[in-house]
Write a structure and sequence with these properties.
The complex is a heterodimer of chains A (744) and B (343). By secondary structure, chain A is an alpha+beta fold. Helices cover 28% and strands 25% of the residues of chain A. Chain A contains 19 helices and 30 strands. Chain B is globular and about 55 Å long. In chain B, helix 10 packs antiparallel against helix 11 and helix 11 crosses helix 12. With 343 residues, chain B is an alpha+beta fold. Chain B has 13 helices and twelve strands. The chains are: A alpha+beta (744), B alpha+beta (343). The interface between A and B is large, with 52 and 49 residues.
Chain lengths: 744, 343
């Protein structure tokens, strides 16, 4: 067999790749047939509810479980390791409200909850700090940590003199750059903490069988969560089997079993019964995952064309009680002037540590960079589009400049920029309503992750693959099926995709926009390898060279000869008695099938009621490149979802902590505000796939469209009102406050 | 949620019997859109839940001999929304449209909506209705809390979205129990009260009492409207609400009632604002003036001063809307998305 050259089919020859395909499991998902981890139940199972710490910072001195144990239906009261002290044990410091202390397993959820209510815990309260926006207060409370910084100056500016102290020279040079700037803008911008708010909360149903743990876990990481269980439970990874067929949202927060998952396994081991333990809604919001905040004081200096020449910033924010913040290298975002000085300060708050959230750090970095660029346009009285376009001459991936420019032009056309744009605050007012346009641009890596695929082609023509990946709601099953069907010339229903189990060949976690790249790599490679073997058999049978064969429409035929062919079934019968099995392995790196680095542009059109501060989305446009598009439909769906998340973060979502107690007060769906259908406005998606981008192969799309929408909306509100609302979300209260401040 | 007894009442009498049980706390269940969440978080933990949702006499909208509209307490919000006999009361329909969640509209009941427990996050977080004599609110995050009637320990705002409209329309309620033969009809505003002590609630019903009907007097050609300032579209609590009803003769207001929601522990009757309209025409200026009067006694907490501005706007827009005048907000602008939502 000749060496297989991995390639994607040409656009005009594709049967599935790049086409619009409805997910085969759509019906199951929309009718409730699909079983999510939350839906998994076993006979004789117990249900767990847990006590969350009611204090944001305290020591847990002791736990009295006696009354809880007496509640009818309660089976076991379990102290969670390292969170609640065993009788006589040392007090344990808790640094975030909601931290689970004690789990109560019972015959019913109600009995477990009643058991939790009967727990008596002795606490020693400690000082609380949660005001992550307030840098001065954090410093006064000694709640800050230096989080890095640095300076980059244009070589042409020279170096410190022989007797000159370096810092003083840098300061002098930066100040000189500002003096030489035609326009200087100073601003404070920010993005609040939001939570992952997964509709299916974190957790699992678990049981033990013959010393092995079976975990039906809501996870983005089927293949390697077993390690997390094994280490904590003192077993080896081969004794853990993780299953996740469907997951109701993860967004970066479901890579680990979580200490509640470990507790479930421990309880199950103690009881010898299946255990169902998923977080309650308030616990999901408090401890299920959150995205760090970011606030910035920034000063930029631009030349007469509005091209920024110097950036000087200090940003801060919180990732919870570990006190880190967004890394300084994220600033400025996409744009990168020649002279940059930046400093970061982490704030230690009494909150659960943050975890990865769709495009970690990028949405915040984008929003607090490009708002300043938009304010530059406002100051100059120049069209924001022009300022963004001119500043493409200084971006961190220079070779992307022309791509961004093209995408900006497309987005501008789709939103009607030239018709609707007006200088900031100078648009028409209808009643108390003004409208405005805004822009944001973003970047992302998205290189394919590691993935292995075991592919079987049966002598009767059956095809199935096994891969330890997961479908996090984005259509992973569908793209795997599309790749196999495309390669073999079959229909989608002729291939079976087996994913969602740690017993299948390893495939990477679904994070970093790596999954579609990963699984299309492994599946395409496996399928091409298998097809090459089948071609060899068919070539002998038909008396034609293997490199002249093609698989299409259920047949393998000699190219150019309509009568020289075998049906797929006939071809597969040549395999012999046993199935043909191919194991394909893809490790990260250069590949003809996938690539890295995408860009995108989003533009927003909003209306603002100046009397109430309410912002309404009129239209949001996303133009996105992603290399080769696999499934046009799910690619668009990904972007729609990301745009809605952007609207949420721009206008609605925020974690609200009680300033005194630190309690997460809006930890229910009734008060954790999210946009509803009526709040979305019109969404327009343009998949930008010129031939030179398609030739680069598959690049991840999951995260990038969730980045710049927030910025676009923030800038649109500023364009509408002529006033910068400094922090996201732009609630009516914040909009009114900003308008009032502007009036003085 | 703790374990509880579930009882199913087929008649009003049976409901009263099931609700009056010695040594057991009881709760009334109809749509369950509020109660179930409160029970799940154990803010409410009744020993017995009595389902009144299927009591036949409480499921209809009927007119009596005096042309009063009797709305059964278990009538669902969507039934009210689509009922032609409610057409003369646009403020009611506007509020239900504003809830704009099909689930809430079709599952929630009229009395359930009127008697919704406060959304105050300190109350819902298990700190009691007064949250440490009001101190938690004063020292805490009070962006959604009261700006009127907030000098006592109660700082929460009444949760009902229908109550301001119902009060402005002069509605009454029929209450039965706790003894089998007891029945009374009271002005609907008397359902609501401001608790002063930790063992008091915001609903003036004794244990074992049940609201069976809401009685709307005939509109007699008066104008009415409601206006809510909502952060977004959906079932979330509005930031501000106002409902108005007035009578205009020869271009001048002869009778007026203005009720605010989301401002105080009870729906708030703005008498001074209503009086100020008397003898005047309805226009942008008088509507704005009424808005100013409505908040003349308002006292902002540390984080809710913006609500005073919103209250002025809500009153002004409700008045203008009732009079069929331009309110100047999204629905009257060319903002297409908003127009669709408000349609």
């Amino acid at each position: 067999m000749a060496e297989v050259k991995y390639i994607w089919p040409d656009n005009h020859k594709s049967a599935y790749i790049g086409k619009r395909v409805v997910r085969p499991d759509t019906l199951e998902k929309s009718t409730g047939i699909a079983k999510y981890s939350y839906d998994v139940n076993f006979p004789n199972q117990v249900v767990v509810r847990a006590l969350g710490c009611p204090h944001a910072h305290c020591k847990v001195i002791s736990v009295d479980t006696s009354a809880a144990e007496k509640v009818p239906g309660v089976v076991l009261v379990h102290l969670i390791k390292d969170k609640a002290p065993a009788p006589g044990g040392d007090p344990i410091e808790i640094q975030a409200e909601g931290t689970l202390l004690v789990a109560v397993a019972a015959e019913s959820e109600a009995a477990a909850a009643e058991g939790v209510s009967k727990l008596k815990v002795q606490y020693e309260l400690m000082d609380v700090f949660v005001d992550d926006q307030n840098l001065a207060a954090a410093e006064a409370a000694k709640r800050t940590k230096a989080a890095g910084g640095g300076i980059e100056l244009d070589d042409a500016l020279g170096e410190p003199g022989a007797n000159e102290e370096e810092k003083a020279w840098e300061e002098k040079t930066i100040q000189k750059l500002f003096q030489d700037s035609k326009y200087v803008v100073e601003g404070r911008y920010g993005v609040d903490v939001i939570t992952h708010c997964c509709l299916e909360p974190h957790g699992a149903t678990v049981y033990w069988e013959g010393g092995k743990l079976r975990a039906y876990l809501s996870t983005q990481n089927v293949s390697t969560t077993d390690d997390g269980y094994a280490t904590a439970l003192g077993i080896t990874a081969d004794d853990v089997q993780v299953t996740c067929n469907y997951i109701g949202g993860g967004f970066g927060s479901k890579f680990q079993p979580g200490y509640w998952g470990i507790a479930a396994a421990e309880i199950s081991r103690k009881l010898g019964r299946p255990v169902k333990f998923l977080l309650s809604r308030d616990q999901e919001l408090k401890i299920g995952g959150n995205r760090p905040s970011g606030y910035i004081d920034v000063k930029i200096g631009a030349d007469e064309n509005g091209v920024v020449q110097v950036w000087d910033s200090h940003h801060w924010g919180t990732s919870g009680f570990n006190g880190s913040t967004i890394g300084v290298t994220n600033f400025p975002y996409v744009f990168h002037p020649k002279n940059v000085r930046r400093r970061a300060t982490g704030i230690i708050t009494n909150n659960e540590p943050s975890v990865a959230w769709r495009a970690p750090n990028h949405p915040q970095a984008c929003a607090i960079t490009q708002t300043a660029y938009d304010d530059l346009a406002a100051k100059m009285g120049v069209d924001s589009f022009d300022i963004f376009m001119r500043n493409l001459e200084n971006i961190d991936i220079p070779e992307k400049a022309s791509l961004y420019a093209e995408e900006m032009r497309i987005a501008a056309e789709l939103i009607g920029w030239s018709n609707h744009w007006h200088p900031h605050g100078k648009g028409n007012k209808r009643g108390s309503v003004v409208e405005g346009l805004g822009i944001g641009i973003h970047k992302w890596g998205g290189a394919a992750g590691e993935s292995n695929c075991k592919l079987r082609v049966y002598p009767d023509g059956g095809v199935e693959s096994f891969c330890g990946t997961q479908d996090i709601g984005t259509g992973t099953r569908t793209v795997c099926a599309m790749v196999l069907a495309e390669t073999f010339g079959l229909t989608l229903d002729a291939v079976k995709i087996n994913i969602g189990s740690s017993t299948y060949p390893f495939s990477g976690a679904s994070g970093g926009s790596t999954t579609v790249g990963a699984v299309t790599e492994s599946h395409r490679r496996a399928a091409q390898e298998a097809l090459a073997k089948i071609f060899d058999l068919v070539a002998t049978k038909l008396g034609a060279p293997a490199d002249k064969l093609e698989a299409s429409k259920g047949e393998i035929r000699v190219t150019g000869y309509s009568d020289k062919k075998l049906t797929w079934k006939e071809a597969c019968s040549l395999i012999g008695i046993r199935p043909l099995e191919v194991n394909a392995e893809f490790k990260r790196g250069n590949s003809p099938l996938s690539s890295v680095n995408v860009g995108g542009v989003q533009m927003a059109h909003v209306a603002v009621d100046l009397e109430t501060g309410v912002v309404k989305m009129k239209k949001l446009v996303a133009v996105q490149d992603m290399g080769l598009i696999v499934n046009r439909q799910s690619a668009e769906s990904q972007i729609y979802g990301a745009m809605i998340m952007s609207i949420a973060a721009a206008l609605f979502e925020q974690r609200i902590n009680d300033p005194k107690t630190g309690a997460f007060v809006n930890c229910e769906m009734g008060t954790y505000r999210l946009p509803r259908l009526g709040d979305i406005g019109e969404l327009v998606v343009h998949l930008h796939e010129p031939e030179n981008e398609r030739d680069r192969g598959v690049i991840g799309l999951g995260e990038p469209p969730a980045i710049s929408g927030i910025t676009a909306i923030a800038n649109a509100v500023c364009n509408a009102t002529g006033v910068r609302v400094p922090s996201q979300p732009m609630t009516p209260q914040r909009v009114l406050n900003a308008l009032r401040s502007a009036k003085g | 949620m703790k374990n509880f007894e579930y009882a199913y009442a087929k008649t009003e009498a049976e409901a009263i019997q099931l609700l009056s049980v010695a040594n057991k706390s009881t709760a009334v269940l109809a749509g369950g859109t509020d109660l179930v969440a409160l029970m799940q978080s154990m803010v409410v933990a009744p020993d017995r839940v009595v389902n009144v949702g299927d009591i036949e006499t409480m499921q209809h909208i009927k007119r009596d001999e005096n042309n009063n509209l009797w709305i059964g307490a278990a009538v669902h919000l969507d039934e009210l929304l689509t009922s032609p006999v409610v057409d003369p009361f646009p403020s009611i329909k506007q509020v239900i449209q504003g809830i704009s969640s099909v689930q809430m509209q079709s599952q929630g009941t009229v009395a359930g909506e009127l008697l919704r427990r406060p959304c105050c996050w300190y109350f819902r977080g298990g700190n009691g209705l007064l949250a440490n004599e009001g101190r938690m609110v004063i020292e805490g995050d009070n962006r959604y809390h009261a700006i009127l009637g907030n000098r006592g320990p109660a700082k929460f705002v009444s949760a009902s979205r229908l109550a301001p409209a119902m009060i402005s329309l002069g509605a009454k309620v029929r209450i039965i129990g706790p003894k089998p033969e007891q029945e009374q009809i009271v002005d609907i505003e008397n359902l609501f009260c401001t608790p002063e002590k930790t063992d008091e609630t915001e609903i003036a019903l004794a244990a074992g009492q049940l609201v069976t009907h809401i009685i709307l007097p005939p509109d007699q050609g008066r104008l009415s409207a409601a206006y809510e300032v909502r952060h977004g579209e959906g079932p979330d609590q509005p930031l501000m609400a106002a409902a108005v009803r007035f009578e205009v003769l020869s271009g001048l207001v002869t009778e007026s009632k203005i009720v605010l929601g989301q401002v105080a522990p009870t729906p708030w009757i703005a008498r001074e604002a209503a009086m100020a309209l008397l003898g005047r025409p309805i226009n942008e200026e008088t509507a704005a003036m009424a808005g100013m009067k409505a908040v003349s006694g308002a006292i902002a907490l540390s984080g809710n001063e913006y609500k005073i501005e919103l209250a002025k706007v809500a009153v002004k827009r409700a008045i203008l809307r009732a009079a069929g005048l331009e309110t100047g907000c999204f629905e009257s602008s060319t903002c297409e998305t908003a127009a669709v939502n408000f349609a």
